[in-house]
Amino acid sequence: MKLSSPKTTQAPLAEAFEQAKAENEPVFVPQNIFADDRGWSYMNQFVGVLDGSGQVNYSVMYPDVVKAWHRHHKQTDFWLCLHGHLKVGVYNEETDTGYVKVIGEKAPGVMVIPPPLWHGAATVGPEKAGLLYFVTHQYDPSAPDEDRREWDSVSDFPWGVQFK
């Protein structure tokens, strides 16, 4: 067997996809990481190869981080925590109803969050949490489908650890 490394390209993923099919060989496309003091993310994965207008992202949140609140007007989010655990918070402003669900390794499942519900997440426990998520609309930096408010702007929302 002849062993070789796959070709590497900086081309957009859709072009790499076409190249791989045309040449019947694998193609590696390096990805950029967005990082700040809350964690890191791979954003907008699989552009041009998904059917439709959605995008796939993977984000890692550090312990003791709350990323909240934001909402969308068109986009629905599908969240699957693959590593660690997240406390997902959802707030319906119209009914003044809050929803809390811990998701992750020991509580697997997909949280579906439609518009216009406010939502966010907090890490649970001492380790990082990894969130794989699909959104139904690609991010448009010139016209973001997003409203934001402060993490503590929903009164009495229980982001912290609950002592019972």
Structure write-up:
This protein is mostly beta strands and 164 residues long. The protein has two domains: 1-30, no CATH class; 32-142, Jelly Rolls, CATH 2.60.120. The protein is built from one helix and 13 strands; from the N terminus they run βαββββββββββββ. The strands form three sheets. Strands 3-4-5-12-7-10 form a six-stranded antiparallel β-sheet, with no helix packed on it. Strands 9-8-11-6-13 form a five-stranded antiparallel β-sheet, with no helix packed on it. It has a two-stranded parallel ribbon with strand order 1-2. The chain is globular and about 60 Å long. The termini are far apart.
CATH class of the largest domain: Mainly Beta
What composes the largest sheet?
Answer: 6 strands, antiparallel
Distance, first to last CA: 61 Å
Based on CA atoms alone, the radius of gyration comes out at 18 Å
Range of strand content: 35-45%
H-E order = EHEEEEEEEEEEEE
CATH architecture of the largest domain: Sandwich
Average pLDDT value?
Answer: 87
Order of neighbouring strands in the sheet with most strands: 3-4-5-12-7-10
The beta-strand count equals: 13
